[in-house]
Input
Amino acid sequence: MPTIRVEMLKGRMPEQKKKIARELVDGFIRGAGGGKPEAFHVVFIEVEKDDWVVGYETMRDKYPDK
Output
C-alpha cells in the first residue's frame, strides 16, 4: 500500500486537502499504469512558517502574514 507524504505550510482547509490527495493519488495511478484509490494513504504534515527555512530565511520572512 503506497503512502504519499505531503509536507506543507499550515493553512489549507480540509476540502483543499481532499482535492490535493485526489490529484496525487490519480497521478500515481496514471503513472503506475493502474491501481485502486483505496490502496493509497496520503499523509499531510503541516509545518509552521517559522519552522521551515530556506537558506537563511524562514517562510515567515518570505511570506509574512497579512
